[in-house]
Amino acid sequence: MNHEGALVDQNSRLGELLTTADPETPVPTCPGWVLRQLLTHVGRGDRWAAKIVRDRADARVDIRTVPDGKPPADDPVGWLADSARMLIDEVARTGPDAPVWTFTGPKPAAWWIRRRLHESTVHRADAAIALGVPFLVEAELAADGVSEWLDILASRPVPDAGPMLPDGATLHLHATDDGLASGEWLVRSEGGRVAWEHGHGKGAVAVRGSAADLLQAVMRRIPADDPRLQVLGDAAAWRTWLERTPF
Q1: Domain CATH code at residue 156
Q2: CA distance 108 to 58
């Protein structure tokens, strides 16, 4: 999929939600935040990624050093839109294949566009939940978000609390959207770390739902037992998975 175009689109949709909203509206899925802080978080994160790419950073960049890291009071939504475009422009200028720092290890600069795309998508869900409006997202984009999240989890060490899944156990995520390619995931534990692949198979627990609902579920935006999900098998394994996979 075109991650650059999708990033601009998701950023624009988030901006549309925030344009007329009360910036002090609490965000239940980000405890302690209001919409003003959510907007700042997304825009500053895009600018942080742009600086990483521009500098070809090989180590973590202090986000406090990001230029113009706070939105102006007179046009915060415009600042948000500029933040996404800045990242896209820096990746094009530096080269999408140029190696840069990421929190999962060195990756091509274009990695950051996909990461920031799904950051915007999930935080748009946060804004929609805060405002009590529907969260609508294309199935292909949501499914790519699930895959990207699993890639991030696969880069992590074993959590201090224990493996995300018991060794030998498999979590099967199944998107129910018609005609969606790559809408099934088999997730397992190997030495306590996450491994995954696309496919269909029997697991200790299977979770079925639309790709949009699965994305919200794995990102802990809806509860493990939300009625939009069908959980088959070991529900405790599903709950443990969510408890041990915070962002």
Answers
A1: 3.30.1050.10
A2: 12
